[in-house]
Design a protein that fits this description.
alpha+beta; Multidrug-efflux Transporter 1 Regulator Bmrr, Chain A; 3 helices; about 25% helix
Amino acid sequence: MKVKIEEKPAFTAVGFRGRFTSKDGANFRDIPKMWDNLSKHDYERLLTLSDVFPQTVLGICANEDSETETFDYWIAGATTAQTSDLEQLSIAAATYAVFAVEGAQPAAVQKAWQDIFAEWLPNSDYKIANGPQIEYNPDGDAFAEDYYCEIWLPVVKKMK
């Protein structure tokens, strides 16, 4: 896995939110449906609003409840603009493990998530920090075999 540790600035995400469960892998089926149902107009609006990470739409996992195995998933732009008709999520500055993901979506990013939790985390010097987990999706053909995106996992060093 290609991974680097980076500091990311605080930003505000604006967009669309849904509540999902990870029970029985339902999130791997239901989140792609959320993307499929996003209109071309709404997608282009998020690209336009995204001035913190230009021409990028983010997928954000936040507000996880481990007891019910549910979390919020956002399709959002990172912006400095004020909007009154989209939901907003404030994201604090944090240290992230940034994973390079290449391949057709959603299969490539789903496999990367599984590899991160099964292979990278148990063998790394880091553990997950409190905060949103982010999929960084530059504009482009997400179904192309050479599509590039990233997963940003908030991390802190493990205590020795």
